[in-house]
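Please check these two lines:
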Amino acid sequence: MRAVLQRVKRSAVSVEGTEVAKIGAGLNILLGVLKGDSETDAERLAAKVANLRIFADEAGKMNLSLKDLGAEALIISQFTLAADIKKGRRPAFDSAMEPKEAERLYEYFCELMERECSVKRGVFGAMMEVEIVNDGPVTIIADSKEL
């Protein structure tokens, strides 16, 4: 699994012009599920993300986690994180997991995160508009195979 973690002041997601979820301060998580990913990848990534100390403490140091703050997460499926751009000028998405299994693992990741913090979700497989107001900006790329 690949995730782009963005510390945000606020974030929202809309489908066909209708807002389906929004959060205040917390993390916007763009999540890609790749062929070969499993429950173990979701568990490893969720544990890391929930406890990653990327929020400022009273001294302004990145010393607090999403879990520490009880902050919110907006989790959005993003199959384009599986893009391979090594050849040609058009991305290949061959490494993206098939939608049915990808949705199952996306939902599992969301459920794991819900054990740690408040979670809002995008709509799996939908064309979405995502509004992100970065805080910092702090943007981190995480890959479950590298944790």
Remarks:
- Strands lie at 2-15, 18-23, 26-32, 53-56, 62-65, 72-77, 118-121, 128-143.
- The longest strand covers residues 128-143.
- The chain has one domain: 2-137.
- The mean pLDDT is 97.
